[in-house]
Amino acid sequence: MELPDFDTLKHWALAEPERLDALLHQQIEALIAQVGPDRQRRLRGLQFRIDCQRRLARNNLDSCIRIANMMHDSVYAMRRHIIQLQEESLAQAEERLPPDNVIVLADHPRNK
């Protein structure tokens, strides 16, 4: 579906916000329908959380800030998880290393 031009969208935002909201939900549903069923459930859950934040917001700016905070929280959670995985991987690698004062003979080639 092709979107209306900017002036039409602006008019809807000022005079018919419910029409603009209907277009938003139509576009969201079309996007979610393009992915597989396993991802659809996750996207619908995310959209539910976004809709809740929009309902709780006092105005459009508050809504934007709330949704931006959700995105930042998600990025920071992923970052913390990646750092934790890196630390665990490094710790496992260090456990496999022999102490500095031990020579592993299997690592040295034999001279014949």
By DSSP, the count of extended strands is 0
CA distance, first residue to last residue: 77 Å
Helix fraction bin: over 70%
Any low-confidence stretches, pLDDT <50, length ≥5?
Answer: none
* Major sheet attributes: none
- How many helical elements? 4
Shape: elongated
Sheet/helix structural class: mainly alpha
Radius of gyration: 26 Å
Please state the average pLDDT score.
90
Order of helix and strand elements from N to C terminus: HHHH
Q: Beta-strand level of the residues, as a percent range?
A: under 5%
User: How many structural domains can be distinguished in the coordinates?
Assistant: 1
What does this 3D model show about the protein?
- This is DUF3135 domain-containing protein.
- InterPro entries: DUF3135 (IPR021482).
- By secondary structure, this protein is mostly helical.
- The chain has one domain.
- The protein contains four helices and no strands.
- The chain is elongated, with a radius of gyration of 26 Å.
